Amino acid sequence: HITNRILLDISLSLSSYISEREKNSLYFYDISKISNCNNDFKKAISDMLSLTVRRIEMQGICFYGLQSEKFLRPLDTIHIGDDALADSTSFTCREKIIKDFCLENKDIKKKNQKLFNLTRKDFPKNSKKLDNLFNEVARYILIPVKIDEELVGVVEIFSLKNTKEESVVPYKTIEMFSSQISIILER
Description:
Blueprint: H1 2-37, H2 41-56, E1 60-65, E2 78-81, H3 88-104, E3 116-118, H4 128-136, E4 137-147, E5 150-160, H5 171-186
Antiparallel strand pairs: 1-2, 1-5, 3-4, 4-5
Helix pairs in contact: 1-2, 1-5, 2-5
């Protein structure tokens, strides 16, 4: 009886693992197809953001392009997702967070960090807007997007506190997503 129970547990674990691997394979295929077959930058980024926010099961995702040596003007901000924080106050606050993040990490090209999982403590400034934002947000992640080690954009991903459960951050998915956005930008 115990052996049967152990084998059943192993079988369930393996089937869950295989299912997750299949989902990742499909995601990687779809994201590669988008980045290889689409010459319209804004549409490609929008499609990738949509696909990624569904895959990682978070509520909001946004791409902020930054002015750099590679681009004469900042790239468009592209927002996707069922964003309960989509009011103008929230966007202003989040753009300030992005700018602060980029200023504080000017030498990000020297850092090999793929993403930054941020909390309210990472922004010590006294700000009611920041307090309000982090009161609603369960997880707030910023992902640097680089070309030739130069920071050219930042992707913001977040989940809200009222979601049913705290999901595990799929680092491989986020890493793949970030590298594909870099490929589109470089092209």
